[in-house]
Write a structure and sequence with these properties.
Layout: E1 2-6, H1 8-16, H2 18-27, H3 34-37, E2 43-49, H4 63-77, H5 83-86, H6 89-96, H7 101-107, H8 114-119, H9 126-129, H10 135-144, H11 154-160, H12 163-170, H13 178-193, H14 200-212, H15 216-219, H16 224-240
Antiparallel strand pairs: 1-2
Helix pairs in contact: 4-10, 10-11, 12-14, 13-16, 14-16
Length: about 240
């Protein structure tokens, strides 16, 4: 199948009338209303190939489980997506109004600030992407996927079950380096396996210390294993302090 995106005309209408669009979403559990609000043929087929998108919305799962399961599905289905395409608001809003509509309804709803952060893009760039209810699934999985592991989604699973850790990490410039993200999350997993508890405050202090290691270029000069040992030593000292 080809992924669909909203036209520029529809995107402008969506973004310039947030209160009206939010009202429609709150009042409608399916997206049939879109045909009355947007221009005819407001969805266009892109050149992006994707497997069928099947979002899980089973209420027996926790929110963290749902995020992980659907993030993994989305990452696999959109395996050919590049960063430029994944930064396109028209793509994610198109997906939100079609295949992802029911998931967003169940997971977030649209009341209050939920529409602003989860259905729309409250800010340009990376911050907006990692808050949007669907874009965040792809981008945060991209940060944590490690094809060298027996389970490439091991770090992704940990991250989505410690989302406050992940979001704070995503704000750092060095979160664009898979090597650094891998070292940090690997160290967190190892520390917890040793029976130590990591708090949000611990992660905030650690991220500051990692920043002090120097520029991303310098940090990337370390091997993956060496970087993990450095981070492991730092987080252990922070916890024991």
């Amino acid at each position: 199948m080809k992924i669909k995106y909203v036209t520029q005309e529809a995107l402008d209408l969506y973004k310039s009338n947030p209160m009206e669009i939010q009202k429609y979403i709150i009042e409608n559990k399916d997206s049939s209303w879109t045909g009355k609000v947007f221009p005819t043929n407001y969805l266009k087929e892109s050149k992006i190939e994707a497997k069928d998108l099947v979002f899980i919305i089973d209420e027996d799962y926790t929110s963290d489980d749902l995020d992980f399961i659907n993030a993994k599905m989305l990452h696999k289905a959109l395996s050919g997506l590049n960063e430029t395409q994944a930064s396109n608001e028209a793509l994610w809003i198109g997906l939100a109004l079609t295949d992802g509509y029911e998931y967003l309804q169940k997971r977030w709803g649209a009341e209050g600030t939920k529409f602003k952060y989860r259905w729309n893009f409250y800010q340009k760039g990376k911050r907006g992407l990692i808050h949007h209810g669907l874009a965040r699934l792809w981008w945060l999985t991209r940060m944590t996927y490690d094809q060298e592991r027996e389970d490439p989604y091991e770090l992704t699973y940990y991250a989505f079950h410690h989302q406050s850790f992940l979001m704070k990490l995503a704000y750092r410039n060095y979160s664009n380096s898979p090597r650094i993200v891998n070292a940090i999350l690997s160290a967190f997993i190892e520390v917890e396996r040793l029976g130590k508890l990591i708090s949000y405050d611990h992660t905030v202090e650690l991220y500051k210390e990692v920043s002090l290691l120097g520029s991303v270029t310098i940090i990337d000069a370390y091997s993956k294993d060496d970087l993990k040992e450095i981070v492991l030593g730092k987080i252990t000292r922070i916890i024991e302090k």
